[in-house]
Structures are given as structure tokens and as C-alpha cells.
Amino acid sequence: MNSPASAIGRYPGQPLSQTTLENFFPGYFALVMATGIVSIGLFLWKWTSLATFFLGLNAFFYVTLWIILIARVVKFPKVVWDDLHHPARGVTFLTLVAGNNVLGSQIAVIAQRQDIALVFWIIGFTLWILLLYTFFLVNIMKEPKPSLEQSISGAWLLIVVSTESVAVLGAIIANSSSYHHIIAFIALCAYMIGGMFYLVLIGLILYRWLFISMKAETLTPPYWINMGAVAIISLAGSRIVMYANTHEMLSHWANFIRSFTLFFWAFATWWVPLLFIMFGYRHFIARVPLRYDPQYWSMVFPMGMYGVCTFTYAGITGFSFIKPISAIFVILAVTTWIIVFIGLLLELPVFNKKVKNQ
Prior knowledge:
The chain is 73% helix and 0% strand. By secondary structure, it is an all-alpha fold.
């Protein structure tokens, strides 16, 4: 029986030199998600030059990954279709939505190009509809159904992350369009839908953790999305409150969303110690090798998202005493990003050849 780690893909855990276009990991847009949220966190804490550098770098990652994806669809359409149908790998395609919208948020917040960010929101909203409904339809109709332990993992919370990324970017760019009321309404609906998805999916994941055998090898990095998903709900709520405070149409929602967002932020905070303990157990007690895996970008993103959501929520509530937590997690996210990126570089064929020659 396959573990969730192996079910997520044939690709994570392989040296990049062995990863061909055919079996390229479909969730690699998590790199764009991680780089984007680190950049926004740096910008909020006034590291403007470094944030701008990460914006340029992320644009390069985004274009490169789209080229790889399009080439893969053209050359290996059946493999891509099989990935979309897979209950564990298929959900990782939603990193396209989240990555697109996080980059759009970078462009809006850092570059102040609301017009370009609006285009990204339209693309992201369209991708969200296409990919999410495709994923649900193929898995509803699929027979025979896989067992819970074969399919469910933290990666399923990308359903939440992608949905909330529509809400976050929509709330940021709403004022840049003459249709801002419609965009804000869609953002509010996405916030609510994502929250509902989280409550359902986290119940399944906790059931998996508590009542089905869990080995250290199955505690893969996507489980950090347990925290990242609820953190992005907190960010979406905070951004919607910022919009609602200046627009009468949503002003009566502001207090409710502000209070409801505390519920999600508190739950994100609860996850943090447990995830660090499980990470330590996996690598330092159970001795699972700590080596580069594309899934580690799913660990960077939640750290950065928790830092950004904490900063933003503190801003709309006046809870200034929680802001230092944001600084700590932005620094942790940047540090982890650098470590994982070095791992990525060392896995590239050109670096592998140099190491072998030495």
C-alpha cells in the first residue's frame, strides 16, 4: 500500500537530474507561492530592495514553470491528464492558482501596479474555476475509490489556499476596477468558501493523523499547509476588513469578519508548535534523511504566510503586541527559503556534474 508521500507523486525525493519533463512534479508552482510570500513579508518590514529582488526572481520562476508546464502538456498530454485524475497528485495543480495570485499580490503591493495585478486576478479566478471543478468532478466519478491514507494529505488543503488566494488578491486590487463591488463580493464569497473547505478537510486530516497509522516518512512537508491554509484565511479576512472599512457596501461585515478572522489566526498559531515538534521528530529522532524535495516549498510558504497574516491582522485590530511574531516568521521563512533554494541548485544537473568531477 502506498503512503501519502509516495501517492503525492513519483517525483518528490528524486534527484532533479533524474526528473524528466514527463514526470515533472505538477506542484512545483509552490516555489512561486513561497518566493512571493517571502517577498511580501520582507516588504511589510521595510526590506524594500530585497523584496523587489524577490519579485523579479519570482517573475522568472513563474514564466519558466509555465513554459515547462505547456511543454509537458504538449508532449505528454496523457501523463498530465493522469496526474489530474490522481487523488493525491491532482490537487497539487492548484499551486498554479495560488502561485499566480501570490505573484499578483506581489505586483500590487510591491510594484503598485494594480492594473497588472487585476489581470493576474482574472487569470487566477479562471484557473481556480477550471482546476477546482475538474479535480472534484474526476474524483467524484472515479471508481474504485482510493483509501483515505492513499489520498488525503496536507496537499488537499491547497483547495483552501487556492480559494483564499482569490480572496486576498481580489481584496487588494478591488479599487483598481470600476467593477470593484463585484470583485470585493467575489473575494468575500471566496473567503467564506475557503473557510468552509478548511473546516471539512482539516477534520479528515486530523482523523488520518489520530486514527490511522502514521510513520515518520508519511509526515511530509505538505502537512505544513495545515497551518498555511488557515493563515491565508486570516490574511484574506484582514484584507477584506481593510477594504470594508472604506466602502459602505461591506462596512457592516467588517466587525464580523474581524472577529471570525481571530478564530482562524488562533488556530494557525495552535498549529505552529506541533508542526515544529513533528519536523524535529521526523528528521532528528526517526532519522528520515533531510535532503532536497520540491515539497519543501510547501513548508516555506506557510511560515511566510503566517508572518504576513500576523502583521496584517495586527494592523486591523491594533494588537500591536503580536507584530514581533510576524518578524520572527518572516526571518524563518527567508532562512528556510535560502536553504531549500540551495538544495534545489545542488540538485541541478550542472551542479551534480561538478560534484562528481571533484
